[in-house]
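Lab notebook, page 48
Experiment: co-folding of the full assembly
Goal: obtain a model of how the components sit together before planning crosslinking
Operator: M.T.
Materials (sequences as entered):
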Amino acid sequence: MNSIAIESLAIETPGSDTRIVEGLSFAIPQGRSLGLVGESGTGKTLTALALCGLLPEPLRLVCSGISINGKKLEWDNRLSWRGVRGKGVFMIFQSASLALDPTMRIGAQIAETLHETKGLKRKTARARTARLLERVGLGPETEKCLPFQLSGGMRQRVQIAIAMALEPSVLIADEPTTGLDPLIQIQILGLLDNLSRSFGTSLLIISHDLRVIA
Ligand SMILES: Nc1ncnc2c1ncn2[C@@H]1O[C@H](COP(=O)(O)OP(=O)(O)OP(=O)(O)O)[C@@H](O)[C@H]1O
Ligand SMILES: [Mg+2]
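Observation: model returned without errors.
Model output:
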């Protein structure tokens, strides 16, 4: 079964004849990966945001069909995204500082996500948080840190830890390794691969680095 299938996706700006994205179709079978490659400014990030129901106003998503796990989505109905975002589709942001709350300690952020989306009791969520951080190679001291106290690679790991907590069907990783040194890049790609193998998560990897795609 396909985890995600998109038919003729377009992104338009009201009042303009030119579309930012046009005619994008793809399907990713469960547990498989797809690379989305393109020059800067071609609409990769906007496509990812559109697939999470997070397209900024006034941009509009137009599409012939979107299905997640074989279930067709009412793509023009924002309510229907609510059940999908997080557990269905989760996005790792190009800039981790956009994804993480700058005022909340890392441990509390992960635990809150587990509490909100998985319904775990707060104490259980905190215990699970330590294990998740360990899985992405971060020590227990990370729990007490605020996002600005971490390096770019560490912040990407925190986003991956949150993805591991949610076990989404589809993970969209927008430039997950950009700006990181080559050794850390390999580690981050290894973690994404691990997530895909462990949970059957399908990956949509956005990059303009063909080595990352390969
Ligand atoms: N909120 C917005 N309103 C209108 N246009 C936007 C908005 N956000 C982005 N754009 C435009 O849409 C185009 C695509 O932007 P997007 O960020 O998706 O590109 P990208 O392919 O991810 O580029 P990069 O590789 O640099 O990350 C750009 O030309 C940008 O100026
Ligand atoms: Mg982008």
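Interpretation: The first helix runs from residue 44 to 51.
Next step: discuss with group before ordering constructs.
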